Amino acid sequence: MLPAAAVLYFPWEVTSGAVQEGASVRTFGRLVSYQPEESRATLSAQHASKEHHVVVCTSFVEPFNPIVGAQYVVLGEKENTDGDDVMVRARVLNCVDGVNIALLQKAINEQRSFFMERDCKQDNAAQSADAT
Amino acid sequence: MQAATMDPAEEPPSLLWGMDPVFSAFARLYIKDILQMTESIQVPGIYFYNFHPIYKVDVLGTVVYKREREKFFCYGVDDGTGVINCLCWKNDLLKEAADPDKSAGKDSDGGQGGFNPAAELKKLKRAQQSRCRLEIGELLRVRGPVKTSRQQREIMASTFYKVNDPVMAVQIAWMMEVPQLYRQCYDKPLQLQPDASSDSAISPLGKATNIIKDFLKQRSVTRFRPYDVQELLEPLISNQRQAASADQEPVAGPSACQQLRQLLKETLQLLQDEGVVYRKVRSQDEVYNVTVQDKDLFIAVKDIITVDSKIEKYAEKGCHILHILTAVRHRYSLNVSKAVLELVLKSLECNSDIVSTRDNYYTVF
């Protein structure tokens, strides 16, 4: 069976309540720490002068070569842990160091605005169809 | 907007599918849309996104699932909007590559200086092989037709390869490009020209020219006078009048005969402008010569080129078309236009009677 599609989210959206538990997500961040014995890595990203941490459970993607300080992209399911932290159980964890984060954010926004625009049009079309 | 909401009865007729440029392209759709497109009732295997007929797609995504069989790979590809199975047949190369050690054995020979095609080919094959075998998390680009098997959409890869994208440049470019493609093509309804082949689209003048051209060609006419072809155009005028009188009161205007003469005059002018016909002699007696049937003109033009190509000035480059034109007007007929001459030169060249040395220059060997 195929897994669910992993939608791209900004790290600060993953840490806030925007993503439901169990949902498949894809997000990015700088690797700030890795504890192999716990299979626990932490990605960090800055947004609006605040640092956001996404904890990644790496048990499915081990062994991997952790480069602390490098940009990573993670794809997996969001899980809530006992603590306040939000955890993503990674199915994919790729090092993409050198990525143009600003451009990536622009591309994500571009894609979202396209979908919003299209949904809007669909709603309008549906409404006008109802009206007639 | 989306094909999922399309009423099956609204399916565009299959005759028009080929008119849609999207039909013959690999559509770069989001996987979500590929999964939701409605399948055609007329022809299974064709799908509709927003009334665009689609049968092959082009996707880029992360491999999130893989299964290997003897003859194919099955990759689950995730582009952030959906996940789709891609059936990727192994080529012979990949099958025989079960023991890579064997092929890797003798490479070093090529390394001794010089270019060893066999070794290079092997390297190339190995590179190709490594691009076909993907692991979960790697980026895959797939092109191919969409199939539905066991109620599941999948892509039958006609091309597939691993994409090296260490800094996500390819993925970002893709993400920026696809919405533009949607806005410019896929989300725009196809606007076909109102049936270009039907009568209404062509003006009476266009129709009249075609009729006369056909007539001249079929009968191999060499010369004619206007009244020889006048009756060919009569149906056009009477049709027009019928159509007009159907929706409005007949108004006082030029009589049918006048209209016919006017149409004929315009048509002959157009044919002259195109160089299809010309008047060798301007006199009271309106005789039109058909350019391609005018053997004398052909001979005259060929002679001019043959003779003038020998002149030192033209020997190297050949004769320029304007030089030929002047000569033809001088020696054959003053009324030969450039369009006529171009037509003559073109057919002489087609018969290899003359050769163009470059644009607008001609010579004879």
UniProtKB/TrEMBL annotation, chain A:
Its recorded name reads CST complex subunit TEN1
> Looking at the keywords, is Nucleus present?
yes
Which GO biological-process labels does this protein carry? negative regulation of telomere maintenance via telomerase
| Keyword annotations from UniProtKB, A to Z | Chromosome, DNA-binding, Nucleus, Telomere
User: What's an example GO cellular component term for this entry?
Assistant: CST complex
User: Do you know which InterPro entries this protein is assigned to?
Assistant: NA-bd_OB-fold, Ten1_animal_plant
What's the family? Answer: Belongs to the TEN1 family.
User: What coarse category fits the chief subcellular location reported for this protein?
Assistant: nucleus
User: A single Gene Ontology molecular function, please?
Assistant: telomeric DNA binding
| Compartments in which it is found | Chromosome, Telomere; Nucleus
UniProtKB/TrEMBL annotation, chain B:
Task: Return the protein name.
Answer: CST complex subunit STN1
CDD domains linked to this entry? hOBFC1_like
Q: Write out the function statement from the record.
A: Component of the CST complex. The CST complex binds single-stranded DNA with high affinity in a sequence-independent manner, while isolated subunits bind DNA with low affinity by themselves.
* Domain Stn1 C-terminal: start-end pairs: 205-365
Q: Where are the transmembrane segments?
A: none
* Species per Swiss-Prot/TrEMBL record: Scomber scombrus
This protein's UniProt keywords: Chromosome, DNA-binding, Nucleus, Telomere
A GO CC annotation recorded here is: CST complex
Q: Name one GO molecular function term.
A: single-stranded telomeric DNA binding
Q: Which positions carry the signal peptide feature in this UniProt record?
A: none
Task: Enumerate the Gene Ontology biological process terms.
Answer: telomere capping; telomere maintenance via telomere lengthening
Q: What Pfam families does the entry give?
A: STN1_2
Quaternary organization: Component of the CST complex.
Q: Does the keyword Signal apply?
A: no
| Subcellular locations according to the entry | Chromosome, Telomere; Nucleus
